[in-house]
Design brief:
The protein is of the alpha+beta class. It folds into three domains: about 1-75 and about 195-390, BirA Bifunctional Protein, domain 2, CATH 3.30.930.10; about 85-195, no CATH class; about 410-514, Anticodon-binding domain (Rossmann fold, 3-Layer(aba) Sandwich). Strand 4 (about 85-90) and strand 5 form a beta hairpin.
Amino acid sequence: MANQEDKFKKVISHAKEYGYVFQSSEIYDGLSAVYDYAQNGVELKNNIRDYWWKAMVQMHDNIVGLDTAIFMHPTTWKASGHVDAFSDPLIDNKDSKKRYRADVLIEDYCAKIETKINKEVNKAAKRFGDAFNKDEFISTNPRVVAYQEKINAILSRMAKSLEDEDLADVKALIEELEIADPLSGSKNWTDVKQFNLMFGTKLGASAETAMDLYLRPETAQGIFVNFSNVQKTGRMKIPFGIAQTGKAFRNEIVARQFIFRMREFEQMEMQFFVKPGTQAEWYEKWKEDRLKWHLSLGMGAENYRFHDHEKLAHYADAASDIEFKFPFGFKELEGIHSRTDFDLKAHEEFSGKKLQYFDHEENKSYVPYVVETSIGLDRMFLAVFSHSLVEEELENGTTRTVLKLPAVLAPTKAAILPLVKKDGLPEIAHNIVEDLKWDFNVAYDEKDAVGRRYRRQDAAGTPFCITVDHDTLDDNTVTIRHRDTMEQQRVKIEDLRDIIKQEVDVKTWLMRML
């Protein structure tokens, strides 16, 4: 556990040191759980968004995009259920005066049991070597089976209590498990209460006439209220999807884990409208497709898993999360939900407007069902960034810190380095920058010895370093160094564009999905 915490602290400090993420309003001591994306961070974030958009919209002829306003008519949130049901179960510790999400306390308790399971698995793997069968061990080892049964029993009970709104039993479960305040160790808890997560604001010139509004807690409703507009103007036929990226806001009382859980965050969502009765097959298809998108980035299949929901939201008939192995354990990265026709029907009822699709083949109108894919852009950023940050032992006994970002997402694709600041080498390096910047984000770096510059670019995540030296003056060739392998090769200046493109091209990476 300490190792995980240390790794996470390194992720946070590296993100600041190399211009990826800053604390918001830092000169005023910051604002809790609000962050700014710095000069490299904004590029990485844009590249992730673009990679998602291309896979989701550009590569599908039946999915279109939308960008809806953050402010929506307040009745939207009544219809969607957010006014009445968008809340978290919170519990206060009477001694430390700290507030926690009750379900997170219980989940963290289960995560500790999971750590014990992993220890048993690792011990057995060392003992049995190549003959070790992990699946068989997990399903037959008495200690591991008992641990797993305990986890399942705890989570099932919690899910049922939350569904039945039996908050007294949630507190009873915390007390039975003897869960202590992580800070003070106190077990002196208040009752569990529900707390609505929406930020309220006002629209209007004067206090008397102002309308009460909310900052949107999700981007999906902007898609639902525009269903008919998009369908008619785009002449869309079912099945079809509407995708959107944008900011959402939640008054998280227990915002934590850096950019994993923030009060202002960005979502990348796609709502796929299907014929009622076909939602189960589309749900399975989108689960499969979305996992393929994640795997196309090459961050290791072992770092992803599906987690089917025990407790379904009021609008869903199936729901699953793609979880990623963050430095603090497996946590939700993306949700795939079969939302039925709840949203469109609710907006029909509250607005009095028809939100139906006329099916010419069946010669009838119906309210479509919806399958949703929803991923947090900030969480995806954290998944990519934390997975990519590694400390490597080199053959000469030294270590290097390298940010092995997937090259397609890296903020800067290549750094151009003149070996020395004289003899016409900077001029050639600047010419290369001028030529390549039309196609790629590139940087010029002339400060320090070339070895130090390599290390700096490794830590910043730049896939290529291109060094201009005295031989360049004679034969128009440069040294290109690959970040991950540190291999160097001599290439012609005119070949640079094609070499870089091969490594960073979106098509090359997305083709892995097929």
